[in-house]
């Protein structure tokens, strides 16, 4: 008989947090709203690409802020519009890096977490790439409450490496079929599925801009447009 679900792991940025709004607000005012949005989306994708390459190359986990500085500089180097490049002084760049530490939660997240803890008596965790300081700042700015925060910095491992998920399970003394991974990132859920976890995909328009959502829908145990019914979906797994 399969074990009862005991814990729900959440990816953080994108899945629980509206990173796009905070980054958009931190971009130079000379950019139009559409330019800001496009810039933010492509910058975020560049971060994913950078981390994926580090994982493939077997490189150690890097500080989140340091990564963001590297990604931003490389992104601006590829920007063909010199006028845009000139808007990014050292001060503007540092303001943009700092903005990643202050984000609001998507409207459906806080209540979903409360229901999981109160009604279902499940443990809820963050399992996300990034730094511990970043996660501490974000739970404060977003007003969210988790039982524990697991960062790639803390674990010394990037998702979606199997070892990352296995390390958390070892610390929590849980088995794969006792855990559900909730994320707005297909690569994350593929990693969780590979170690035997249940997976729930939550679609956020800000993320997975290169993924075929039809494929993603078929890959996971559940595919949601928000977290409003997350508790009942997890109960059905």
Automatic annotation (TrEMBL):
Keywords: Hydrolase. One of its GO terms (molecular function) is hydrolase activity, acting on acid halide bonds, in C-halide compounds. The keyword Cytoplasm does not apply. Gene3D superfamilies: HAD superfamily/HAD-like (3.40.50.1000), Putative phosphatase, domain 2 (1.10.150.240). SUPFAM superfamilies: HAD-like. Coiled coil: none annotated. Belongs to the HAD-like hydrolase superfamily. S-2-haloalkanoic acid dehalogenase family. This is Haloacid dehalogenase. It comes from Knufia peltigerae.
């Amino acid at each position: 008989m399969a074990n009862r679900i005991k814990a729900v792991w959440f990816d953080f940025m994108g899945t629980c947090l509206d990173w796009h709004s905070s980054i958009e607000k931190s971009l130079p005012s000379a950019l139009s709203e559409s330019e800001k949005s496009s810039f933010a989306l492509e910058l975020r994708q560049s971060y994913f690409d950078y981390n994926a390459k580090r994982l493939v190359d077997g490189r150690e986990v890097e500080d989140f802020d340091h990564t963001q500085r590297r990604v931003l500089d490389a992104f601006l180097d590829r920007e063909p519009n010199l006028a845009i490049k000139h808007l990014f002084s050292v001060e503007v760049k540092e303001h943009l890096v700092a903005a990643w530490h202050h984000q609001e939660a998507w409207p459906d997240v806080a209540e979903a977490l409360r229901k999981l803890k109160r009604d279902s008596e499940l443990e809820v965790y963050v399992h996300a790439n990034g730094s511990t300081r970043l996660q501490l700042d974000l739970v404060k700015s977003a007003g969210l409450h988790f039982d524990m925060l697991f960062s790639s910095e803390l674990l010394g491992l990037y998702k979606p490496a199997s070892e990352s998920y296995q390390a958390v399970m070892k610390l929590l003394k849980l088995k794969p079929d006792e855990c559900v991974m909730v994320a707005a990132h297909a690569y994350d859920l593929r990693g969780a599925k590979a170690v035997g976890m249940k997976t729930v995909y939550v679609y956020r328009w800000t993320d997975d801009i290169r993924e075929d959502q039809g494929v993603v829908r078929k890959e996971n145990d559940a595919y949601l447009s928000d977290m409003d019914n997350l508790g009942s979906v997890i109960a059905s797994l």
